[in-house]
């Protein structure tokens, strides 16, 4: 079965997007291979962070770069960062992050819509990180976004699907990929998100703060694949506990009953 993740004119076999922001450069290649990720995010401020080390040197060449606009507080700043990434050879993908809230680090949807419109018109494959809200998501897609990336919980929290209801509404109502971004903290949560119908899941802190980065990356990759398979298979029905059980095989006609 052909089941690829489509973003603009591009297709990917993996539905797990790996963040690179919090662990050592030397672990990036291992994490990519263990997770089977084909897309990796990177903050533009980490590109060329010193004359000796460049994060781009540690990312496998077959992996698509998804530079983000981390640090931007307005649409104009996000646009400048995205253009800088393109000039540095990071390609045409961009994850827009516009954050002015310093406590919860929630993205600013209004500024993100503005940046999406400008960058999509310049040929970028725009992937906006957003607070989960249906009207804003529709505005981003109308502005040219290739998908929307709602947060599941505050970034870096590992708190799981705190905004599950709002995200489910987006998945049900939007005719575009909904990629679950920040907050996913365990492989089980990633699997649950995929079973809901998410197009993909991204994780960073959950892997970076694990005792074994390689093993956790593998666990996330497997969880995303399992969740996707469960979604495509169609989950079995759920009975109310109060209504009692239902035998999974006949209880009569055995041993002469």
Give a brief rundown of this model.
The protein has eight helices and ten strands. The protein is of the alpha/beta class and 257 residues long. The strands form three sheets. The chain has a five-stranded parallel β-sheet with strand order 5-4-3-10-9.
Question: Can you put this structure into words, describing what you see?
Answer:
This protein has 257 residues and is α/β, with parallel strands linked by helices. It has 8 helices and 10 strands. The protein has helices spanning 28-35, 75-87, 109-121, 134-142, 164-173, 187-196, 205-208, 213-233, and strands spanning 5-7, 10-12, 16-18, 39-43, 64-68, 93-96, 125-130, 149-150, 179-180, 200-203. A 5-stranded parallel β-sheet has the order 5-4-3-10-9. A 3-stranded parallel β-sheet has the order 6-7-8. Strands 1-2 form a two-stranded antiparallel ribbon. The longest helix is centred in the C-terminal third of the chain and has 21 residues, at 213-233. It starts with a strand and ends in a 24-residue tail after the last helix.
Question: Which short descriptors sum up this protein?
Answer:
alpha/beta, five-stranded parallel sheet, about 35% helix, globular, single chain, about 260 residues, 10 strands, three-stranded parallel sheet, 8 helices
Sheet with the most strands? Answer: 5 strands, parallel
Q: Topology as H/E string?
A: EEEHEEHEHEHEHEHEHH
Give the assembly state of these chains.
single chain
Q: Briefly note the structural class of the backbone.
A: alpha/beta
State the low-pLDDT regions, or none.
Answer: none
Question: Can you tell me the overall shape?
Answer: globular
Question: What is the typical, i.e. mean, pLDDT?
Answer: 89
Number of helices: 8
In whole angstroms, how far apart are the ends? Answer: 45 Å
Number of strands: 10
Strand order of the largest sheet: 5-4-3-10-9
The proportion of residues in beta strands is 5-15%
Radius of gyration: 20 Å
Give the proportion of residues in helices. 25-40%
């Amino acid at each position: 079965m052909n089941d690829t993740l489509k973003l603009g004119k591009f297709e990917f076999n993996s539905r797990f997007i790996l963040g690179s922001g919090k662990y050592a450069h030397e672990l990036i290649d291992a994490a990519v291979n263990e997770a089977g990720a084909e897309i990796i995010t990177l903050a533009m401020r980490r590109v060329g962070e010193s004359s000796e080390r460049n994060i781009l040197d540690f990312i496998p060449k077959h992996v698509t770069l998804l530079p983000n606009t981390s640090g931007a507080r307005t649409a104009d700043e996000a646009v400048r960062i995205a253009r800088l990434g393109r000039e540095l050879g990071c390609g045409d993908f961009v994850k827009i992050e516009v954050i002015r809230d310093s406590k919860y680090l929630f993205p600013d949807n209004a500024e993100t819509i503005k940046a999406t419109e400008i960058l999509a018109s310049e040929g970028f494959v725009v992937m906006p990180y957003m607070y989960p809200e249906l009207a804003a998501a529709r505005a981003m897609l109308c502005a040219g976004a290739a998908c929307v990336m709602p947060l599941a919980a505050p970034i870096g929290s590992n708190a799981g699907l705190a905004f599950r209801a709002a995200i489910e509404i987006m998945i049900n109502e939007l005719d575009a990929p909904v990629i679950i971004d920040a907050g996913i903290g365990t492989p089980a949560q990633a699997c649950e998100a995929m079973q809901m119908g998410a197009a993909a899941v991204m994780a960073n802190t959950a892997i970076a703060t694990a005792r074994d980065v390689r093993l956790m990356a593998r666990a996330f990759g497997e969880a995303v694949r399992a969740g996707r398979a469960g979604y495509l298979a169609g989950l079995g029905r759920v009975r109310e506990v109060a209504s009692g059980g239902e035998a999974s095989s006949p209880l009569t006609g055995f041993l002469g009953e």
